[in-house]
Amino acid sequence: MDPQHIRNFSIIAHIDHGKSTLADRLLEFTGALSQREMMNQVLDTMDLERERGITIKAHAVRLEYKADDGQLYQLNLIDTPGHVDFTYEVSRSLQACEGALLVVDASQGVEAQTLANTYLALHHNLEIIPVINKIDLPAAEPERIREQIEQVVGLDASGAILASAKQGIGIKEILENVVLLVPPPAGDPKAPLRALIFDSWFDPYRGVIMLMRIVDGAIRVGQKIRLWATNKTFEVEGLGYQTPKPVPTQELSAGEAGFIFANVKTISDAQIGDTITDAINPCEEPLPGFQEAKPMVFAGLYPVESHEHNLLREALEKLRLNDSSFNFEPESSVALGFGFRCGFLGLLHLEIVQERLEREFNIDLITTAPGVRYKITKTSGELIEVDNPTRFPNPSEIARTEEPIIEATVITREEYLGEILKLLEEKRGEQKKFEYIGGGRVLLTYELPLNEIVLDFYDRLKSASRGYASLDYHLSGFRASPMVKLDVLVAGEPVDALSMIVHRDFAYERGKILIERLRKLIPRQMFEVALQAAIGNKVIARETIPAMRKNVIAKCYGGDISRKRKLLEKQKEGKKRMKRVGKVEIPQEAFLAVLKVGNSGDDQD
Amino acid sequence: MPGVYLSFPFCGQKCTYCNFGSGVFPQSLSEEYLAALKHEIAAFGWNWTPDTLFLGGGTPSLMEPDVIEDLLDAVPGKPWREATLEAAPGSFDAAKVQAWIRGGVNRVSLGAQSFVTAELRRTGRRHTAQTVEADCALLRDRGITNFNLDLIAGLPGQTPASFQESLDEIARLDPPHVSVYMLEVDEDSRLGLEILNHGSRYGAGDVPGDDAIVEMYETAVDRLAALGMHRYEISNFAKPGFESEHNLKYWRLEPYAGFGADAHSLDGGVRWRNVESPSEYVKRWREGRSPAEDRTEACFAEEKFFVGLRLSEGVRATDTERDFYREPIARFIEQGLLEDGGGVLRLTRRGVLLSNEVFEEFVNP
Predict the structure, then answer these.
(1) How far apart are CA A128 and CA A126, in angstroms?
(2) Could you tell me if A550 lies within 8 Å of chain B, comparing CB atoms?
(3) Are residues B244 and B356 in the same domain?
(4) CATH number of the domain residue B352 falls in
(5) Does B250 touch chain A (CB under 8 A)?
(6) Which of A224, A373, A414, B73 is most buried, by CB atoms within 10 Å?
C-alpha cells in the first residue's frame, strides 16, 4: 500500500487505565472483529495476560479504516508490553510507530510509568495524541487531568480527546485523529530491505515467528533474508498480518507491519530490536538501538520434589524458546539439591516465568531470594561479576565491590509523602528531584541501589501509599558500595540457600532479623540447634532453638488406633517435605524467610 | 477374653478441650439412641463372652438408674471381672451408684480434670474440688473402692504451681488409679482450634507452653510414684493390681467390640468403627443399616510397636523385627529414647515425652 495511507501507532497507558478495552473498541469500530467475536481483551492472549490485565507480548493488528476524507487507510495498532521490566521491548515497539495515543484515566491522572513511556515515545519522535478515558465515571475530572497532562508531561492537551472506551465514546474521533495527526511512514520502498523485529515467539509448527515493521524496501515469500546480529540467512516461508486473525500475504512493503516466518529454529536468532535485511542486496547500516537482552535480577529456581529436576530443565528450555530475555544455568545447593540459577529482566518477569512454570508445566518451585549482579575487583586485580551469593569471594580477597544503581521515578499523593520518603531513605535512596505536579500530587526522582528494590520494595511502596504510588525505573550505572556476603549456619553448617549479599551497614540488623525469623520457622529438633548469622568467619548474631521437649499423644481413647495412625502418618509426611541439612530438618517456609528480611522494623510474630 | 465398649456420647455441657464426638443433644435423640444401641448389642454375633466392660462417653453418669441397668443387662458375661463407668463429678447420687452396682459396675472413672476452681470454670466445668471429694466418699461408702481420677496438664491459666495443688488433692483423696492427660491441641476441640488459629477465646492465649506442661507431667510421675502409683502406660498410673484391665486390651492388641456412636472394635484381626455422629447412628438403625464403617485389616506388625510401646512393660521384639528396625532402634537407644533389656524394648522417661518421634518409624516403615 502507498505509505501515504498507512499509519502506525501504539497506545501508552497505565495498568487499568483502559488500554485493552480501547484496543478492543478500535477493532470493533473498524469491523476487524464482529461484536459476536469480541471477547474482553482480545489482544491479551495468554491466560496470564488476561488475568493480570497486563500485556506481556507485543502485538500488531491491521485495521482498515475509511476516514471522513473518503480514503481507505491501513492503521497498524502496535500494542506494547506495559511494565517497567520490559522497557527495552517497549522502546522497540515504539520505534516501529510514528504516533501514540496517550491514554490517561479521567480520575486517576498521569502515573509514573505512563510518564516514562511517553518520554520514550517523544524520544523516538512520535506524535502523541492525548486521550482522557473513562469520562463516564462519576469521579471523572477531565479538565483537571487535561491541566495535569500539560504540566507534568509538558504536552499541549487542549485537543485531548474525551473518551470512554467502555461506553464507546470518542472512538471515531480517535481514529480520525490518528489519520490526521500521525505522520505517514517515511521509508523508501525502493531501497534495500530494512525491517525492525519488535517481537518474536516460537511456534512448534513454523519455528520462530517474528513481528516486524518494514522500514525500507519490501519483503516477499521466498526471499533470502539475513538477520543482522547473528549474520545468519534464511528463506522467507510465510508472511502475513493480524486482523487480529492471521491473514497470509505474498508481500509486505515499506511502512507496513506484519509477521514473518523463515524456518528460524531458535529464538535467540531473532532478537528483539534486530534488523532483517536482504541476503543478496543488504542495507548498509542496521536500524539503530539494538541491544542484547540483559538480565538484571537473578534467583535460583528449585523443584520442591527433587526428582522433578529434569522436568524443570525441560520446562525452562521450552519457555526459553519463547522468551530469550531470561537465561538459566544449572546450579546445586546443599540445602535444596539440584536447580537452576536464572536471570530475569526484573521482578515481574521473574514472577511471570515462575507462574508459567507452575501453571503450564505443573512444577512446584522454591525460589531463592532474588538478587542483582555485582562488579567485584579482587585484591589480585581481577574483575569479576557475581550474582550468586555462593560465588561471592572471601572478604579478604575483595578490593572493591560495586552495585547496580537505578534512577526511580515515583508519583504519589502528598498525604503519603512522609511514609514514602522514609521508605526511600531506608532503601539507601538519594533524592534527585522533588516536584509538586498539581492536584495534591508529587513527583520524586531518586537514585537507589537495585538490590534494595528487588526484595520487597513494591509491596512496601504499595502499603506506604495505600496503592496510590506509581513507580518507574531504569538502570543508571554502578556505584562503589561495601557489600558483604551474609551466611546462615544451622547447627554449625552453612546453609547456602539462605546466604545473601547485603550492604555492610545493614548486615548486622538483617542477620539478626533473619535468624530470629528462622528460629520461629524451624521446628524444635531432638537436640538443641544453634542458628548463626556470619560474615566470613565472624558471627554477628546468634539464636538457639531449644531441644524438643514433648511430642506425645496422651489419649488413646476407646481403642481408636486409626486416629493415632493417621496422626503419625501426617507427621511423617510433613518431615518428608522438609529439607535436611546435616541433622536438622528445615521446612520450606524457612527458605522463603530470606525473601522477607528487607523490611526491617516491622517484623511480626 | 475380649472386652466390650459402650458409647454414650451425651453430655450436660461441651467442654472446651473435648475433641470427641460427644456433646449436648436433644433428649429425644438420647432415647432413640439407647434403643439403637441395645439393638446393635443384641444383633452382635457373640461367639465369645466379654470379661471386661467400659461404659464411656460422653457422660454415662447422666443416665437414669433404671435406664443404665436396662442397658447393662443387654450385654452378656455379667458379673464382669472389670466394668467401668465414666462419671462427671456432681452428676450422681447414692441411688444411681446403687443402680450401677446392681447393673454390674465395679469401677468408676471420674473426670476431675483439675482441683483449681478457676481452671475448671474456663473449660466449662461446673464442679469444684469439694464436689470430687464428696463423690469419692460416696463411691467408697457404697463399696466402689476401685476408681480413677482424670487430670489434665495444659489447661488455660494452669501453671506448674497450680498443678501441684491438684496433685495435693490427689494425695489427700488417695485414689488407686490416676490418668494424667497432656492437653491435645487439634482442630477437633474448640480450645485446640482457637490455639491453632492464634485466637484468645477459651483462654487459648493462657495455655502453658511445652516446657511447663512437661514440668507438670514429670512432677506427676514422681509424686504419684511416691503415692504408690506407678506409670503403666503413658498417661495412666495405678497402685499394683488396679491397672485398668479393659484399657490394657487396647494396648496389648487383644480383641474388643465397641457399640454406639464412634465406638471402635478389633475382632478376628479386623478393625472397624461406628459412625461418629449420634444422629447418623440413630438414622442407620431406623433404616436397618449397620453403623459400622472403615473395616480394615489390623496391621499387628506395626501396631505392636506404636501401640505396645505406650505400655511401661514394653514390647518383646523378635530377632526378625530387631533386624528390620535395626537402624531406628539403634538411633533411639543412642538418643536415649529407648532402652533394651532382657529382650524387651521400652521407652525411657525422655522417650515417653517424645514417643511420637519413636512411633513414627514403625508406621509405614
Answers:
(1) 6
(2) yes
(3) no
(4) 1.10.10
(5) yes
(6) A373
Neighbours of A314 (CB within 10 A): 12
ipTM reported for the complex surpasses 0.85: yes
pLDDT reported for residue A33: 63
Q: Which residues of A touch B276 (CB under 8 A)?
A: none
Same domain, B173 and B313: no
Q: With a CB-CB cutoff of 8 Å, which residues 159-198 of chain B face chain A?
A: 180-184
pLDDT in tens, A251-286: 999 999 999 999 998 888 888 899 999 999 999 999
Q: In this structure, are residues A198 and A23 in contact, taking their beta carbons and an 8 Å threshold?
A: no
Q: CB-CB: which of B184, B264, B359 is closest to A559?
A: B264
User: Diameter of chain A by CA atoms?
Assistant: 94
| Domain identity same for B52 and B192 | yes
**Minimal C-alpha gap between A543 and chain B (Å):** 18
Provide the number of structural domains found in chain B.
Answer: 2
pTM comes to 0.67
**What angle in degrees, to the nearest 10, is found between the helix axes of B160-173 and B210-226?**
20
**Residues of B in Cβ contact (< 8 Å) with A570:** none
Domain end point (choices B191, B222, B251): B251
Mutation target among B109, B180, B221, B273 for the A interface, most CBs of A within 10 A: B273
State which amino acid sits at residue A558.
G
Write out chain A residues lying below 8 Å of B211, CB-based. 546, 549
Residue B74 Cα, gap to closest chain A Cα (Å): 20
Residue B294 amino acid letter: D
Please enumerate in sequence order all residues whose Cβ is within 8 A of that of A424, keeping only pairs 6 or more positions apart, or say none: A410, A431, A444, A446, A448
State whether residue A561 sits within 8 Å of chain B by CB.
yes
Give the residue numbers spanning the domain of B333.
Answer: 300-363
Same domain, B227 and B338: no
pLDDT tens for residues A42-98?
A: 444 545 554 554 444 567 899 999 999 999 999 999 987 666 677 788 888 899 999
* Cβ within 8 Å of A, B 59-118: none
A117 phi, psi to nearest 5 deg: -70, -35
**From the CA of A369, how many Å to the nearest CA of chain B?**
28
Q: Return the closest-CA partner of residue B89 out of B26, B32, B169.
A: B169
Which domain CATH number covers B216? 3.20.20.70
Q: What are the pLDDT digits (tens) for B252-299?
A: 999 999 999 999 999 989 999 999 999 999 999 999 999 999 899 999
Residue B201 counted as domain residue: yes
Is residue B267 in a domain?
Answer: no
